Amino acid sequence: MIASAQEERVFQALDSFEIEIPSWGFANTGTRFGKFVQPSAATTIEEKLSDAGQVHRYTGCCPSVALHVLWDFPEGRASVAQVKTLAAKYGVRIGSINPNVFQDQIYKHGSLGNPDPEVRAAALRHILDCIEIAKDTGSRDISLWFADGSNYPGTANIRRRRAWFEEGLKEAHGRLAAWQRLLVEYKPFEPAFYHTDIADWGMALLLARAAGPQARVLVDTGHHYQAQNIEQIVAWLLSEEMLGGFHFNDRRYADDDLTIGSIDPYQVFRIFHEIHFFVWETGQPPEVAYMIDQSHNLKNKIEEMIQTAVTAQELYAKAALVDHAALARHQQRCELIEAEECLKAAFATDVRPTIRAWRRAKGLPEDPLAAFRASGYLERAARERAEKNKGLVASYA
Ligand code: PSV
Ligand code: MN
User: What's the 185 CA to ligand 2 centre distance in angstroms?
Assistant: First the structure.
């Protein structure tokens, strides 16, 4: 039984909240300085989907998994049927499809922005293949991130590269089915350290607009300079009807890939608040894909992903508690303290008891992490996968 209006708002918010988890969050990844291999880490697409299935099973809010084409489709398009069957076996579905135009040697000087037309054509071919894969998997979103850029002033023709990007993205857009979208992600630096071709949301917005009506901007929270006001970017993209989705992660310095909300939970709350406030004002829920882009080197990967999903739910639910009518009134009257307190009151609310009640109502465990830990899955996975992961260590030695 729902006891109060506040509980009802939390229940409603959670009923509609889903967050996609990345396959690469379950594999052995690390930093450029090294990897700490975990005995239970997933080494195959089957293991990644099995682990993702555990996260969804205990949280109930992660039904889809983002896949990276080169890492997850061992035989490209030919493996789609097999990957789909595996996803169904583990109780998840395939979410966004991520092309990879950064790993191959040919991309040393860029992909769609490369001065060599053959490399640009190869990158485009891969993206078009990915769009076909996404059609086969039933994935709405093709999520594009480019490592393109340069390291030294004067070495790249910035305007030409912009034009090549526009050309490539237009062609890619032309292949979308009516129900698909291109998401254009931006990043100010890394791996390029002088300029990146899509450095910020303005560039991503212009390129998405040029690509065509089904392209949108993807905001990766780790891809901003320190102190940048991300919720303002979100508010602008909402106004422009150009917000396509998020890659959530937290950071202290740059693209740290830390657990969502671990450093600055108020930041995530403020982002969610802009979305709830937009819906309250316009009555139009935007089509925004909430996704996680984290891959953990030190914490256990499945446990961390459960922690992530739970934290995202808490922050989303808190943001749903803002008194929008009061906030709008205070803003109009320039009642600064009252307006600010509206946000702070919602942020300070302990929503955890209500979320536990929501989980009970959905037949989910009240404490997803404890339930997962009690299941013995991790110990089993470690036993079954330890040998393969040991092999990995050896191959790095
Ligand atoms: C690049 O830093 C990025 O955020 C892109 O979204 C990639 O797909 C992902 O990380 C790979 O880990
Ligand atoms: Mn990302």
Answer: 7
Instruction: Give me the CATH number covering residue 333.
Output: 3.20.20.150
3-state secondary structure of 159: helix
**61-79 pLDDT tens trace:** 999 999 999 999 989 999 9
**How crowded is residue 338: how many other Cβ atoms within 10 Å of its Cβ?**
14
Cα-to-centroid distance, 291 and ligand 2 (Å): 9
Name the residue at shortest CA distance from atom 3 of ligand 1.
Answer: 145
193, 197, 201, 204 alpha-carbon torsion, rounded to 10°: -160
Amino acid, single-letter form, for residue 334:
C
Chain centre to alpha carbon of residue 379: 28
Give per-residue pLDDT as tens, 102-145: 999 999 999 999 999 999 999 999 999 999 999 999 999 999 99
Tell which atom from ligand 1 comes closest to the C-alpha of 220: 4
The CA 325 to ligand 2 mean position distance, Å, reads 34
Tell me, using a 6 A CB cutoff, whether residue 220 lines ligand 1: yes
Q: What would the pLDDT profile of 267-323 be if each residue is shown by its tens digit? A: 999 999 999 999 999 999 999 999 999 988 899 999 999 999 999 999 999 999 999
Please indicate whether residue 293, judged by its CB atom, sits closer than 6 Å to ligand 1: yes
Question: How many domains does the chain contain in total?
Answer: 1
In a domain, 395, yes or no: no
